[in-house]
Specification:
The structure holds two protein chains of two kinds. Chain A has six helices and 13 strands. By secondary structure, chain A is of the alpha/beta class. In chain A, α2 packs across α5 and α3 crosses α4. Chain B is globular and about 60 Å long. In chain B, the strands form two sheets. In chain B, strands 7-6-5-8-4-1-2-3-9 form a nine-stranded mixed β-sheet, with helices on both faces. In chain B, strands 12-11-13-14-15 form a five-stranded parallel β-sheet. The chains are: A alpha/beta, B alpha/beta.
Amino acid sequence: MRIVVLVKPVPDATGQERLRPDGRLDRSAAPPVLNGNDEYTLEAALRLVDAHGGDVTLVAMAPAEARDALRKGLAMGAARAVLVTDDALAGSCALSTMQVLAAVLRTIECDLVLAGADSADGGGGVVGAGIAALLDLPLVSGAAAIDAADQGAIRVRRIIGIGEETVEVTLPAFVVGTQLLGEPRYPTLKGIMGARAKEIAVRKLAEIGLADAAVGGGSATTVVVAQRPPAARAAARVVREAPDAAAREIVEFLVERRAVR
Amino acid sequence: MSGAAWVVAELGDDGLPTRLTLEAATAARALAAAAGTASAAVVAASDPDFAASALAGYVRRVLVIRLPAEAGGSTVAAAGAIAAVAVAEDPAVILVGATPDGREAAGILAARLGRGVLGNATGLSWSAGEDGVPAGPRVEMSVLGGRALTTSAFADGRGIVTLRPGVVTATPGDAAGVIVVVAVPVPPAAGVRVVDRADAATRAASIEEARIVVAGGRGLGGAEGVALLEELAAALGGAVAATRAAVDAGWLPFAVQVGQTGRTIRPALYLALGVSGAIQHRVGMQDAETIVAINRDPDAPLAEHADLYVVGDLFEVVPALLAALRARGA
């Protein structure tokens, strides 16, 4: 099975992340790392190819310095990476991101595309479903387990509301995963060494059939008008009493806040 | 703003719109009133009638799309049908609840309509363009794990917004809206066939709807902690929620995970047991009105975000709390 895993380099959540005055992410403040959720879908992809053959291609849209973040995915076991990077992409909106990733996916032959449920920085959780719609691929979200099924199909166990269902999906298809897919593997030393020789193909917009003006910051559908720090929450009242006294204080507090009558 | 303000309805197991849907309907009506346009709700379901009647109390028009029974539960099928109607009706703004299904629908609508999308709104207003950006909705969002609040707009004043719970209070309108059945072809969700479906064993109260949420984290330690958590939730009439650590440990189902990848909630009271408050969890609960935490670690990150922080062993404090609640007949 030829699998593409969409990965997003996001700022490392060290507490240093910040926005620039224009509302865009300040990429110099925090180095990019692989979005945590995307490592779970990558793990699922690697298990599928471990069991059934094939290979995994990482696809990302990010500035050129995101190469280092992609190396981790290659060290985990992906065969290659494709990085769409172009100065015109700075300030891209969610729609533009969908269009760019859909365009690069059209240039890659694959049976299955995997994406994480959301990203640690933007967190909108809309891009995966949008790409599937643009490509007219069958879409399954909330995936908790993915197995190969007969004749060009996969079987996906997915979370729906408070229950779950199992669906059979004809390939090619688009699956949005959750952390229930399983703990991502750590790169081995051999994997890390091997990743250095693997290809990260860099693509400009023109190379995936898009004009600079059609996508990216210049044609963004959304703009940041203003930004401000959040209002600070008043410091907590700290209770260090013994359990019975602490319990009485909690009840008093809940009554004060009208949480209990 | 020319074109209506829409809300896409999400229905609960009872076939009625979720509270978040009614909140979004209220927000759509307010936007429409400010912009001098009409409000509408769109319900796409196999059994949409009860929901349509309920929504008629909130917006001027309810567009009803009856999905074939086999597509009734499919967000993909519903969003595809809604997109077809939206192409014809051309609403200016489409509001969707920021739930897993709502986000999926918003992504599909954005792609099919070629519209911008702003996610996880924590505030929503209308601007005539005094800020130098075209007239349209202004959407407040909490980004970078709550470290910054941004206000964003659509470059052409038109787009799709996913709305977090509790941003507006659901309030019915003055006049009953008109229910319109829309005939639109609904192609089956090609390539996807359901082979098995299982409802969760327990009918968990929806944590997005709950006024009180009691959440457990790594500190629960296992089944004994989960039993205490459930007992406290029951005593307070609240819903049970979990951190990712508690879900990964297999103690609580993914459906009640709060935070990144899980649910975002804004209850009146959020009571945390053994929750350290990692940033990935806080993004899902930090807007709760009141936050109470019980944790052994006095320096856990949640201490900086709580209103009342109890330093103690939850296995001692919670039984005492249950006894104190019983004593006052709560």
